[in-house]
Amino acid sequence: MDDRELRRVHVRVTGRVQGVYYRQSTQREALARRLTGWVRNLPDGRVELVAEGHPGQVAELVQWLQRGPAAARVEEVEISEVAPTGGTAPFEVRR
């Protein structure tokens, strides 16, 4: 798949999203969709992530991010489109 067939998003999620397995659940959902990228907690209580892959799979992840895992309470999801890099590393949780 070349870069023209990829979509990459930079996302920041606000709400009760730390301490509720949001990062681990996001990684599981991203890997199930064969996406690359990463997710991490921010010092201000938000979660930040970058996801890249097939546009339909990225859209599915973005839709899931609106809910998150059962214990999360998502208040806002900010999404920015960024240029795909064609990365191949598995989606990871960053500390």
Q: How would you sum up this structure, described in words?
A:
The protein contains two helices and five strands, in the order E-H-E-E-H-E-E. Strands 4-1-3-2-5 form a five-stranded mixed beta sheet. It is globular and about 35 Å long. The mean pLDDT is about 95. It has helices at about 20-30, 55-65, and strands at about 5-15, 35-40, 45-55, 75-80, 90-95. The chain has one domain (about 5-80): 2-Layer Sandwich (Alpha-Beta Plaits), CATH 3.30.70.100. About 25% of the residues lie in helices and about 35% in strands. By secondary structure, it is α+β, with helices and mostly antiparallel strands.
Number of helices: 2
**Largest sheet strand order:** 4-1-3-2-5
- Radius of gyration from the alpha-carbon trace, in angstroms: 12 Å
CATH architecture: 2-Layer Sandwich
Q: Secondary structure elements and their pairing?
A:
Blueprint: E1 7-16, H1 22-32, E2 36-41, E3 47-53, H2 55-65, E4 73-82, E5 92-93
Parallel strand pairs: 2-5
Antiparallel strand pairs: 1-3, 1-4, 2-3
Structure keywords:
95 residues, alpha+beta, Alpha-Beta Plaits, five-stranded mixed sheet, 2 helices
